[in-house]
From TrEMBL:
It comes from marine gamma proteobacterium HTCC2143. The chain crosses the membrane at residues 6-29, 36-54, 74-91, 103-122, 128-147, 159-181, 226-250, 256-277. Gene3D superfamilies: 3.30.450.40, Histidine kinase-like ATPase, C-terminal domain. The keyword DNA damage does not apply. InterPro entries: GAF (IPR003018), GAF-like_dom_sf (IPR029016), HATPase_C_sf (IPR036890), HATPase_dom (IPR003594), His_kinase_dom (IPR005467), Sig_transdc_His_kin-like_C (IPR004358), XrtA/PrsK (IPR014265). GO terms for molecular function: ATP binding; protein histidine kinase activity. This is histidine kinase.
């Protein structure tokens, strides 16, 4: 089959597909679903396809005519993409960006027109067609990327971006391949018409499908890294293309050394690109330029917020939380370092520094200065590089004198929690753009509040830990005082009866035993406080412990009675401690009961448990007191007579033995304490 016939069929089919697309776009334009310029761009592609197809039959298309049609096709689609972006989003790209794209096809038109007027033989050079197509294809891809990136609400725009982007990508491949061999590849050129037709057909079918659906939000979006690399690659491609153009003419007019010089130039350009894009500074500057000119917002807020939360909540026990706060803020704004000031005794004092020396005590700031009030009342971010209109320059006069001694000062960020100024962070200048816009200020304030809340929470947790330590110390002190009170009561009783019974040998012997017992218990208490021995666990006969506890309470009224239903029960516990808590329960019952009442103590065995009950018919307690206050430490109804820890201590000790304490009580009827202790399973 003749090659001209293949090309004719290819471009004819492409023209037919663009004819269908033009009709469909005209209908959609009438429905106000697309911009009218898309109809014009499709019509230009139809004209372009038809002219090239006719060239392969009985019509000869001049080279200047082909150049003009190629430029018209690219220009119409670039303009259509730009106006579609504004049509879809209601916003324009930055003026410098639009000027750059439109200037490329305008310059192409002017250059070709000038060559036509001057009848310059360069029109017949195939390289002009190659370079024209290569440069405009790159410009078209950049325009496609912006439409795809920003048209978030219309699937029609996404479809347009994909299909037209595919056409430009094919052209980029075609002309890049042709540039290497300094002539256009016939196979790729012939296939170009069919490729364009296929893209137009896909666009037609897709537009019909999308037009039938209700508009819905698109979930596709190109991220900033993708835009960064796309723009960088486009710039690198343009740079290499210019170098290749220079190398080509060096080869053409350079004589015998032309090839060597061309290869040397291309190799140097390639190595230069690798060196430039391997530089952190260069990449940072490119990233700042892209953020300013390619995006509606300077920051990817979702990414920044997730990264902020993840950094602040990252658990690392070895890391200083204050240092982490500085690191997080500095990394977001690319600052080289910073220092944190926190409130302490009426001053804001430097606590931690990163990437700079820690300021000394001369850099403390009183909390009531105009500098601090501006941060607290107005949430003011002090900056020496603010580029905002109508910015009050005199606001920086509130900065204290010591701030001037900090090298490379960039800004002062307040850390606010509601209306409290927790402190502030000073950041040094970033390595790239140091200007501050409204968008920077909004993000700075949001980050400052979030960091302040985490610092405040961290401070609260430390205060809680200290309070818990003091609470544990106070409880220990209370328990010691409770034991000493009981020992003092024993000693006081001996002293009280000494004058009356000092001549009685039995009393003297009993007093010596009492003192010996007190000394032993105090020694045991000191041993526990010194942590030399926490407990003296023994296998005890429980009925003997009860007898001892009841005897200790015989001097009080009413005298307790003891009923032993079993004498074989043995438990494992600390003898002194168990005796003390049982005696304490019996004394409480005696204090709550009238002299004419009763206090009955009973021991029985129930399976694997020993059951001790202490029953009285005293004043009793209501259910609310039993449920909410009885076992609460330091809460007592004995005004001036107790510390309110005896029952709490009893429950904690019995729970440590694996048992439990239960209480039944009624006002003016009495109370029953039931203590359950597991029986020892050890064999004697």
């Amino acid at each position: 089959m003749d090659e001209n016939y293949i090309a004719f069929i290819s471009y004819s089919v492409g023209g037919a597909c663009f004819a269908a697309l033009t009709l469909l776009l005209a209908y959609l334009c009438k429905q106000k679903l697309v911009h009218p310029f898309l109809v014009f761009a499709s019509l230009c592609s139809l004209l372009w396809s038809a002219a090239i197809a006719a060239n392969y039959q009985h019509f000869t298309l001049p080279r200047e005519g082909l150049l003009l049609l190629e430029t018209l096709r690219y220009a119409s689609w670039i303009v259509a993409l730009m106006v579609s972006l504004q049509f879809a989003t209601g916003q324009r790209l930055p003026r410098i960006f639009r000027a750059m794209l439109h200037s490329l096809w305008l310059i192409s038109f002017i250059l070709i027109g000038t060559l036509i007027v001057l009848k310059n033989p360069l029109l017949n050079d195939g390289n002009l067609l190659i370079w024209n197509g290569l440069i405009l294809a790159i410009a078209g891809l950049v325009a496609v990327e912006q439409l795809y990136r920003n048209a978030r609400h219309q699937r029609m725009m996404k479809l347009l971006s994909i299909c037209i982007g595919a056409l430009f990508a094919y052209d980029l491949y075609l002309f890049s391949y042709s540039l290497i061999f300094t002539e256009i590849d016939k196979g790729l050129w012939q296939s170009r018409g069919a490729v364009n037709g296929l893209a137009a057909l896909l666009m037609t079918l897709g537009a019909i499908t999308v037009a039938r659906q209700n508009p819905q939000r698109s979930v596709f979006s190109v991220s900033r890294p993708v835009a960064f690399y796309t723009t960088s690659i486009s710039a690198a491609g343009g740079f290499l293309a210019l170098i290749a153009l220079g190398g080509y003419y060096v080869q053409l007019y350079g004589g015998r050394w032309g090839s060597v010089v061309q290869i040397a130039i291309l190799f140097s350009a390639f190595v230069s690109l690798l060196a430039l894009f391997g530089s952190t500074t260069i990449r940072s500057k490119v990233n700042v330029w892209i953020n300013k000119n390619f995006f509606r917002h300077k920051y990817d807020y979702r990414k920044e917020w997730l990264q902020l939360i993840n950094s602040l909540t990252h658990s690392d026990t070895d890391e200083d939380f204050n240092e982490r706060a500085i690191t997080v803020v500095a990394s977001i704004f690319k600052s080289q370092g910073g220092c944190l000031w926190l409130e302490d005794s009426g001053f804001y004092r430097p606590i931690k520094a990163l990437g700079m020396p820690l300021p000394d005590a001369r850099h403390c700031e009183p909390i009531e200065t105009p500098f601090c009030r501006a941060m607290q009342q107005q949430e003011w971010v002090f900056s020496t590089h603010t580029s905002l209109p109508n910015f009050p320059e005199d606001i920086n006069k509130r900065l204290p004198e010591w701030v001037k001694s900090i090298p490379n000062l960039w800004l002062v960020l307040p850390l606010l929690t509601e209306k409290r100024l927790l402190g502030f962070i000073i950041l040094t200048e970033p390595s790239t753009d140091a200007s501050v816009t409204w968008e920077d200020l909004d993000l700075l304030k949001a980050v400052g509040r979030q960091v302040a809340s985490y610092l405040d929470r961290h401070e609260a947790s430390e205060q809680l830990a200290r309070a818990q330590q003091f609470d544990a110390f106070n409880k220990l002190t209370a328990f010691v005082m409770h034991d000493l009170k009981n020992l003092i009561a024993q000693q006081a009783l001996v002293v009280e009866n000494a004058a009356k019974h000092k001549e009685n040998p039995a009393f003297v012997e009993d007093a010596i035993k009492t003192i010996d017992n007190s000394v032993g218990r105090m020694s045991n208490l000191l041993r526990k406080l010194q942590q030399q021995k926490t407990t003296d666990i023994e296998r005890l006969q429980l009925h003997k412990i009860l007898i001892d506890a009841v005897q200790k309470c015989q001097s009080n009224r009413p005298s307790p009675s003891l009923r032993l239903e079993t004498q074989s029960v043995k438990v494992e516990a600390d003898r002194d401690h168990l005796t003390m808590i049982l005696a304490n329960i019996i004394k409480n019952a005696q204090e709550a009961t009238a002299v004419s009442g009763f206090v009955d103590v009973t021991l029985r065995e129930d399976g694997k448990n020993a059951i001790i009950t202490v029953e009285d018919n005293g004043a009793g307690m209501d259910n609310e007191f039993v449920q909410n206050r009885l076992f609460k430490p330091f809460d007592t109804t004995k005004s001036g007579k107790g510390m309110g820890i005896g029952v709490y201590q009893t429950r904690e000790f019995i729970a440590g033995l694996g048992g439990r304490v239960e209480v039944e009580s009624a006002v003016n009827e009495g109370t029953t304490f039931t203590i359950t202790i597991p029986v020892s399973t050890l064999k004697a």
